[in-house]
Amino acid sequence: MSQADSSDASNHLGAQSTVEGSLPSLSNARREDNVSDDDSALISLGQQFGETVAELQMLLGQPEKGGHSEELEAALARLEPIERAIMATTAKTVADLEVKARHAAYVMSEQWNAPIDRLDWDARAARLLIENVCNIARASAEKLSRGGK
After folding, report:
1. What secondary structure letter does DSSP report for 28?
2. For the CA atoms of 12, 17, 19, 21, what is the dihedral angle to 10 degrees?
3. Whose CA is closest to 98, among 147, 45, 21?
4. Minimal CA–CA distance to 97: which of 54, 48, 131?
5. Per residue in 95-137, pLDDT tens?
6. How far apart, in whole angstroms, are the C-alpha atoms of residue 115 and residue 139?
7. 40: Cβ–Cβ under 8 A, 6 or more apart, which residues?
């Protein structure tokens, strides 16, 4: 793994906790109850993505590994095809959009390092769009879990 790859992973994962704090979390239990055949592929990719990112965060948090371990390389290698599949799969439902928005938030995680009013116009637009999609998806899932349509 190149130093640039490790740096990219550290940048994305270092800001991920800030991103996660401002976005609703993907709840696997909630999703299992409300997944249709239309969105199960992206939901599955989203779960794989979340698990792999969590593994990367854990590995980067181990100072004795120095962030340059074989395990880190392997996790990054597993992450790339998941990310490519998320990007290549067309969203058909609100739940699908949430997976895509959460991936975009991960890729653009540096946009959560500063207050929104200090971001450039284009970064602000992207961050607000991502946050709004996630909020709408969460509201939709909560409504479905209460038996609403």
Report:
1. H
2. 180
3. 45
4. 131
5. 999 999 999 999 999 999 999 999 999 999 999 999 999 999 9
6. 24
7. none
Rounded Cα gap, residues 56 and 67, in angstroms: 9
Contact 109, 21 (CB under 8 A): no
The distance from CA 5 to its chain's CA centroid, rounded to whole angstroms, is 18
- Residues 21 and 87: their CA atoms lie apart, in Å, by 23
- List CB contacts of 80: < 8 A, sequence separation 6 or more: none
The residue type of 146 is: R
Q: Which residue has the tokens 């971001």?
A: 119
0.85 surpassed by pTM: no
* Residue found under tokens 């599955």: 44
In the structure encoding, which two tokens stand for residue 112, read together? 């959560």
* Domain spans in the chain, listed from the N-terminal domain onward: 3-145
